[in-house]
Amino acid sequence: MSKTTAATVKVMLSHNYCHFEVSKQIEGDDISQQDIDAARKDCQRLADRAVEQYKRAKDYEAKRTYNNNERLNMEREVALIRQKPEEQWTVFDKAKVKALEDYRYESLYNYEDDPHDPPF
Q1: Which residues in 92-115 are b (16+ Cβ under 10 Å) and which e?
Q2: What is the pLDDT of residue 120?
Q3: How far does CA 55 lie from the centroid of its chain?
């Protein structure tokens, strides 16, 4: 029976159309299934933590969209973020972009009565 001397574990999660990926490489003289499983659990915990950070950041950024000045600042920040390759975006960058996209999408379908609309 051959010994396992190297293994790579990768965990990928998708949440809210954002993707989070964690990988870990382990090396040794004889890597057991338990070692590989422990690495997988570590990666899963890190990916879960990234999703939780994303959720908190997105909630914070979504609140910024309600204030006009904050939203204008956010639009400038997102424009700078979009200049970087997407794989270089941080969890907080992803949250800002998604919060602004959600705001814009919801604004398209806002059916509340506008006081300036003429009565029917």
Answers
A1: bbbbbbbbbeebeeeeeeeeeeee
A2: 45
A3: 8
Residue 67 host element (H or E): none
pTM: 0.64
Note the pLDDT of residue 16.
82
Task: Considering only CA atoms, give the Rg of the chain.
Answer: 21
Query: Alpha-carbon distance 16 to 1, whole Å?
Result: 44
Long-range contact pairs involving 28-36 (C-beta distance under 8 Å, separation at least 24): 29/3, 29/5, 30/3, 30/4, 30/5, 31/3, 31/4, 31/5, 31/6, 31/7, 32/4, 35/7, 36/4, 36/7, 36/9
Please check whether residue 50 is in contact with residue 91, taking contact to mean a CB–CB distance below 8 angstroms: yes
- pLDDT tens string 23-66: 999 998 888 999 999 999 999 999 999 999 989 888 888 888 77
Residues in a beta bridge with 7: 26
